[in-house]
Amino acid sequence: QVQLVESGGGLVQAGGSLRLSCAASGRTFSRYTMGWFRQAPGKVREFVASIARSGGSTYYADSVKGRFTISRDGAKNTVYLQMNSLKPEDTAVYYCAAEVSTVPATRVTDFRSWGQGTQVTVSS
Q: 65 in helix, strand or coil?
C-alpha cells in the first residue's frame, strides 16, 4: 500500500490561488490512479479531481472545472492540485488518494490509500 503525504494548504483570500502537493512513497507510483477529495465540516467527503496512471486523462467535479488543475510528476512521485479563483465554499480539508486502477476513479470507494489531509481555508 502506498503512503501519501499532502502539503500546501493554508489560508487565502477569495480569488487567490494555492497549489497542493501529495508525495507518494514507493517505486510503483506509475501504477496508481491519483485523486483529490475534500471534506467540509458537517459534510461528506466529495470528489474534486483525479488523474489516470499515464496522466493522459483527468476528471473534475463540476464545481471546480475551469478553476482547478490536477497533474502528476512521475520523477518526483508527486501529484499536484493547482487551485485558482478560490471561493469561500472551497474551504475544506483536502485529501489525496491512490488506487491501482486502469479505469476512471471518481468515488471515495474507488480508492483504498489516503493521506492525512491538509486544511484549505478561503476567506471572503
A: coil
Give the pLDDT confidence of 9-25 residue by residue, as tens digits: 999 999 999 999 999 99
Joined together, the cell numbers standing for residue 69 give 488543475
* Distances 69 to 8, 17, 41, 61 between C-alpha atoms, Å: 15, 11, 24, 11
Q: Give the residues of the chain that fall short of pLDDT 50.
A: none
Task: Tell me whether residue 31 is exposed, middle or buried, using C-beta atoms within 10 angstroms of its C-beta: 0 to 12, 13 to 18, 19 or more.
Answer: middle
91/77 Cα distance (integer angstroms): 26
Sign for the CA dihedral angle at 57, 73, 3, 70 comes to: negative
Burial class (CB in 10 A: 0-12, 13-18, 19+), 29: buried
Q: What is the Cα 30 distance to its own chain's centre? A: 16
Distance, in Å, from the CA atom of 85 to the CA atom of 34, rounded to the nearest integer, reads 23
- Torsion sign (Cα): 63, 56, 101, 29: negative
Rg for the chain, CA atoms, rounded: 13
